[in-house]
Amino acid sequence: MTMDLGPIEGRLSPPGAVVARIETKDGLELRAVRWSVGRSAKGTVAILQGRAEFIEKYCEVVGELLARGFDVALLDWRGQGHSDRLLRNPRKGHIRHFRTYLADLDAFEAEVLAPFCPRPWFALGHSMGGAILLDQAHAGRSPFERLVVIAPMIALWGLRWPRAARRLAWCLCLLGFGRAFIPGGSGRSYMLRGFAGNVLTSDPERYARTAGFVEADPDVAIGDPTIRWVDAAFRLMRRFEAFEFPLAISTPTLVVAAGRDKVTDTRAIELFSSRLRCGRCITLPGAEHEILMERNIFREQFWAAFDAFVPGLPDAVETVDAIDHEVPAPTSGSIRPLRLPA
């Protein structure tokens, strides 16, 4: 598996990328990339991607963070991007337990962040990446000063019988089907299925750009998850349901939810966030799941919230309340809204 950066449109490829091959304690090789603005850096933002994503997809975001004066570091999780795959079929999205991803974060910290990236460190995680960051913080292992998590995988959208779905995945694993695709699944990347009817973004240009990365470098993509991956995801999301779980997270956290999310459950995200000891949640009405790949009207709201929170003042969460002009309140009504600049 190549560790280079794949073909990227020139205007979105920030210069100075340093590609690294790092090794986890269990012997897997992962791809990581970092960019630096030099001695003037305000700190480092680590981008932790969602399921089936890859580093190239975030080059626009990298450029925006560099322009804000941050160094940036990214990681391809095990089993996706240009990191080592876990099964003979490289198109299967597979994992046995989500805590295994914490080993990826340990290697990332030891081999990329600690030796090369200036502090303070901040994390920006999307969907699955956001869930892993919350799990790491809950375990008291987060090296980051602040977390920004976008549409975190707290619960899945639209599951009418979640208990039955969890039990079915568990039973299929017991019967030896853990490495099989989910029913109806295949190795075809979701990015090649066309913009019409997608549940990720309402921006056709950014959708087409990501699909272009996959077409130019097919090895960077994976298809649907395995049953074992789904079982592992259900086990993690079941832990998020515990009332005390968010109460144990002491890292200041900004949660950004999508009002029209049809991948993760926005209501569950808002409820979880309302119990954070040191956190706030905002919901962007009309935005779909991939907020950073959305239309500019949503991305501008996100960056306003990000800039209010990172690097922030000593009281990172209360800082946001000193800024005028509210975003519309979250749908649950139980969460104090974050205030954004005009």
- What's the tally of helices? 8
Radius of gyration: 19 Å
Order of strands, main sheet, comes to 1-2-4-3-5-6-7-8
Number of domains: 1
Order of helices and strands: EEEHEHEHEHHHEHEH
Please supply descriptive tags for the structure shown above:
342 residues, alpha/beta, Rossmann fold, eight-stranded mixed beta sheet, disordered C terminus
Give the topology.
Blueprint: E1 18-23, E2 29-35, E3 44-48, H1 59-67, E4 71-75, H2 101-116, E5 121-126, H3 128-138, E6 146-150, H4 162-174, H5 204-216, H6 227-240, E7 253-258, H7 266-274, E8 279-284, H8 296-309
Parallel strand pairs: 3-4, 3-5, 5-6, 6-7, 7-8
Antiparallel strand pairs: 1-2, 2-4
Structure overview:
The protein is α/β, with parallel strands linked by helices and 342 residues long. It has a single domain, classed as Alpha/Beta hydrolase fold, catalytic domain (Rossmann fold), CATH 3.40.50.1820. The protein is 29% helix and 13% strand. The protein is built from eight helices and eight strands, in the order βββαβαβαβαααβαβα. It has an eight-stranded mixed beta sheet, with helices on both faces. α4 crosses α6. The protein is globular. The N and C termini lie far apart (45 Å). The C terminus is likely disordered.
